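quick one, 162 residues, struct below
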Amino acid sequence: MRLSSKGQIAISGMMFLAIHGKGRAMTAAQIASDQDISVSYIEQLFANLRESDLIEGVRGPGGGYRLALPAAEISVADIVTSVDDRTYALRETVIPNYGDKVRYLSQLMWSSLSRKIYKFLHEISLQECIERKQKGESIADIPAGLLQTGITENYADFREAS
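---
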């Protein structure tokens, strides 16, 4: 699993719908303005979110987009896998047994990390993101220890090294 800029923008757009829409439709222009990106880019991302049944399109005057489910039932992983290459994001990685054991072990490690990231993001709901934002808490700066990677809570040295 990867978290691309598309995924980040989709998460923010969905948060915008949940916070400002409250059941009513918001236009692509309103969402794009909030995200400071083009309307056509929002339309692209939201087409994928609509295909995944996370949002609904509303036609006519006052139309736009609204959440198809309560924010508590939408996980961050649902959003990310909807807008990123679904075959990449969802597939179980089959790792060939390369003769080069270092390469093989490296691929096993990345595959395992990808699954842990997916599981972690699947456990965070859109509602939780909104509640954290409203409390002034950081959404993105989550201690690496929560990913169960073995990195300690004080990971400033790790971030500087990467």
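The beta strands are 55-58, 64-67.
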